[in-house]
Write a structure and sequence with these properties.
This protein has helices spanning 2-21, 27-52, 58-79, 86-107, 115-139, 149-177, 179-248. With 249 residues, it is an all-alpha fold. Mean pLDDT is 83; it is low at 212-223.
Length: 249
C-alpha cells in the first residue's frame, strides 16, 4: 500500500538526515537519532525474520518496545533535568523494563501481540512529553517555539505515543471485530508513524541551522573581541608614545 511505502521512505529520510548531521547533535538529539536508527533496524530485521524464520513477527515486538522505551526514557531523563529529578525517571524506566520481562515470560506469550507493554509504555512516555511542555511553559525561556528542535521532537513523540496507546489498547478488540478494522487501524497507524518521522526530520534540520547560526555569531563575537583588543593596544601604545614625547619636552 502506498502509505506504507511512503512511511518507509520517510523513516529512511529522517535516518539519513540524522546521519549527516550527527556530529553536530547534542547528547539529547543523539539519543533520538539512536531511536530512529533502531526503528530502521527493526523494520529491516522484521522483513528478514518474516522471510527466513517465520511469518509470525510478534516476538520482535516483545524486544522492540522495551528498548524503544529505554531510549525515550533516557531522552526525557536529560531534557527534564531540573524539573523532575533523574532518579525518579530512572526508577520508572527500571520498573517498566522489569515488567516487560515479566509480561513476556508469564503474561503474554512471545507469539502474542505485546499489547499490555505497548499500552503502558505509551502512556508513560505520553506523561513524560506533557511534563516537558509544562517545564517549557514554566521556564518561558524559548522565544520562538518553532525554532526549537526539542519542541518538534516532543510534539512528534506526544502525537505518536498518544495514538500508540489507543492502538495497543484496542488491538485485541480490533482483532476480534474484523480484518477490515485491523487493516484500517494499521493504515492509520502508518500515517501517524509517517508524521512522527517527518517531524523528527524537521527537528534534525532545524538543529543544524541553529548550530550554524550560533557558530556564525560566535565567530562574529570573536572577531569583534579581537578588534577591540587591538584598538585597546593601539590606544595604549599611542598614549605611551605621547607621554614619552611630553617628557622629552
Amino acid at each position: 500500500m502506498w502509505i506504507i511505502k511512503i512511511n518507509a521512505i520517510t523513516n529512511l529520510v529522517a535516518f539519513i538526515i540524522g546521519s549527516l548531521q550527527y556530529k553536530y547533535f547534542s547528547k539529547e538529539l543523539k539519543i533520538i537519532y539512536y531511536f530512529v536508527a533502531f526503528g530502521i533496524f527493526t523494520e529491516v530485521f522484521t522483513k528478514f525474520f518474516k522471510i527466513f524464520v517465520m511469518r509470525n513477527t510478534m516476538p520482535i515486538g516483545h524486544f522492540y518496545f522495551p528498548i524503544a522505551f529505554l531510549l525515550a526514557g533516557l531522552f526525557y531523563t536529560r531534557i527534564l533535568e531540573g524539573f523532575i529529578k533523574p532518579v525518579y525517571l530512572i526508577s520508572i524506566i527500571i520498573m517498566f523494563e522489569v515488567y516487560a520481562i515479566i509480561n513476556s515470560v508469564f503474561v503474554q506469550s512471545l507469539f502474542e501481540y505485546a499489547s499490555l507493554v505497548g499500552a503502558i509504555g505509551s502512556m508513560l512516555i505520553f506523561m513524560f512529553a506533557v511534563a516537558f511542555f509544562v517545564k517549557v511553559m514554566n521556564e518561558a525561556k524559548i522565544n520562538k517555539l518553532s525554532r526549537e528542535p526539542l519542541i518538534w521532537i516532543n510534539t512528534a513523540i506526544l502525537i505518536y505515543f498518544t495514538f500508540n496507546f489507543f492502538y495497543y489498547s484496542l488491538f485485541n478488540l480490533l482483532v476480534s471485530t474484523s480484518k477490515e478494522a485491523i487493516v484500517i487501524a494499521v493504515l492509520f497507524f502508518s500515517g501517524i508513524n509517517l508524521l512522527f518521522y517527518f517531524l523528527i526530520g524537521i527537528a534534525f534540520l532545524i538543529y543544524r541551522k541553529i548550530n550554524i547560526r550560533y557558530k556564525h555569531v560566535l565567530e562574529c563575537d570573536e572577531i569583534k573581541s579581537t578588534i577591540n583588543q587591538l584598538l585597546i593596544f593601539l590606544d595604549y601604545f599611542r598614549t605611551k608614545n605621547s607621554t614619552k614625547t611630553d617628557d622629552r619636552k
